[in-house]
Amino acid sequence: MEIKDEETLKLSYYDFEPFCKWKREEGHDILEVHLQDFQKQQLRVQIKELGVVTITGERPLDDTHWCRFNKQIKIPKNCKTNEIRAKFSGGILHVVVPKKTPAFPAELSSAENITTSTSMPSNYLFGTLELNTKLALQVAGMLAVVVAFGAYAYKYCHCDHVET
To answer: In the UniProt record, which is one GO cellular component term (predicted)?
Structure first.
């Protein structure tokens, strides 16, 4: 029994970060985690509160060396966390994250016909369909300061010009 305890004390771990890739699809997103040389029994996928998926795994390299990883992924709010599924095949762990369906699909489908880009300045300031009121108030406040400064500068520049 003492020999076994001494052996467990001599274990060393190699921590690594697995390669991950997201595939975005219409009804769901898929996270692919590349885990060559792992077996299904050596992996664990857990969904924790606040929409965090934790993926862990460890496997032996030899008698005293193991490799392991611990990956945490924050799931977007527009996803159904209670329907997340995982499948391991061919050395790749597929974590399927279903998206919530919109409340008004008829309105959404008509809005999808309008092509918009978030890189356009108007969409950055106002969003694609709704006004960002906080940003609009900041822009209006800055505009008021610029107009007040311009009026002040015009008045004093104009008066200096008349006196000379």
So the answer is: plasma membrane
